[in-house]
Amino acid sequence: MRTIKNYLMMGLVAVCAVALLAGCRKGPDVDEPNKPNVNVDSEIVLKKESVSVSLDGGSYLVEYEIKYNGEGENPHTGEKITAEAAEEWVNEFNYSITGALQFKVDANPSSEPRECLVTVKYRYAEDATFVVKQGAKISMGFKLENITTTYFD
């Protein structure tokens, strides 16, 4: 009798665990910028497809425009762009300048040039991208050894 009760209790616990796990599905994220139910009626127009930056890094701007249905002003007041860089050395995005995206680029410590894809997002438009290109230090030099001179009068 006690064995049957143990099996029933274990079965009940297993059913409850399955029910809890099945009820914990993640739904769509409410803050997701390009949700399928959002009407894509605007376009992000970037003024540059690539930005060449100093190997020492610094602060840079890319101008943009949000066009509504390919023309006219943006009717979605209060909506802002966001940006994501594929590499950590492009960072500190500033969205407070109207019509421009400001960002910081770290100095390149290596001897290899590098590139970073930046994706610009807007809730009512398809994503737009540009590339940040950064040069590298070139180490050149020579070494003088065993120099002798002869002085003539």
Integer average pLDDT: 80
Largest sheet: 4 strands, antiparallel
Number of helices: 1
Helical content stands at 10-25%
Please state the overall shape, judged from the principal axes of the Cα atoms.
flat
For the biggest β-sheet, the strand order reads 1-3-6-5
Please compute the radius of gyration using only Cα atoms: 29 Å
Q: What portion of the residues fall into strands of 2 or more residues?
A: 35-45%
**Unreliable spans:** 25-31
First-residue to last-residue Cα separation: 122 Å
H and E order: HEEEEEEEE
Q: Which structural class is indicated by helix and strand composition? A: mainly beta
How many DSSP-defined strands? 8
What is the topological layout?
Blueprint: H1 2-22, E1 42-46, E2 50-53, E3 58-68, E4 82-85, E5 90-94, E6 100-105, E7 114-122, E8 125-134
Parallel strand pairs: 2-8
Antiparallel strand pairs: 1-3, 3-6, 4-7, 5-6, 7-8
